[in-house]
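Here is one chain, start to finish.
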Amino acid sequence: MSTDALRQSVVEQLMRLVGLPDDETAAREADETLMALDARLHEEATLSAGPLAA
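Its structure:
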């Protein structure tokens, strides 16, 4: 899944949570999607920073 697709998925998951605030499954899915996006953005930032950034 592309970074843009992950971003869109996070938005959709958060909108779902607004409608289902007590749904633990929806919250877990949103958390997993957000964590995947966070990992992807961290990876992209590390790659773009080059080898001296580590």
